[in-house]
Amino acid sequence: MIWELIAMLASGAAVAGVVMLVRVIVGNVIPRWVTPTAAALAMVAFSINAEYSWYPRNLNAMPAGFVEVNNQQSSAWYRPWTLARPYVHTFMAVDRDTILTNPAMESAKLATVYVFTRDAPLFAMPVVFDCAGKRRADLPNGADLPAESDWRALADDDPFLPIVCQG
Fold it and tell me: What is the DSSP secondary-structure string of 54-122?
């Protein structure tokens, strides 16, 4: 995040420098207010580009075997461009190559779910899926099979089921 801030400021400074150079070359015909305005527009454009390019950049950087399960789009009034076209803020992925089957419960599959969020570090969470019962349970700190009360029912069209259970 800090690198993005530094890059945004650098883009504003670079555009301001180019505008000042152009002003000198053309003999100060361009008004002085154009320099900070161009710098501000460059920083806003950089921020917008960074928001929209984060998702495809991270999706393409995932290792082989990782499959995107779902994503969450975001928009806000203080980012008016997102009202016209929301951007992906969070997405989840599963590493198909590391899915394990529990010998004590054949329909149970253990998968690591990775949560990628634009403004937070990568979060990995082990999750047990009961494919026959269409339910799941999160395993904090690598716990054993969860108690019956820890299971959450999944809808028939849940995106995890075909990836984890049929993978």
Answer: HHHHHHHHSPTTEEEEEEEEE-BTTBHHHHHS-EEEEEEEEEGGG-EEETTEEEEEEEEEEEEETTEEE
Rounded Cα gap, residues 51 and 58, in angstroms: 12
Number of H-type helices and E-type strands within the chain: 4, 7
Tens digits of residue pLDDT in 100-121:
887 777 788 889 999 999 988 8
Q: What are phi and psi of 140, to 5 degrees?
A: -70, 135
The whole-angstrom distance between residue 166's C-alpha and the CA centroid of its chain comes to 25
Q: Any idea how long the chain is?
A: 167
* pTM, 2 dp: 0.81
The dihedral formed by the CA atoms of 146, 140, 105 and 147, expressed in degrees to the nearest 10: 0
Strands 100-102, 87-95: parallel, antiparallel or unpaired by DSSP? unpaired
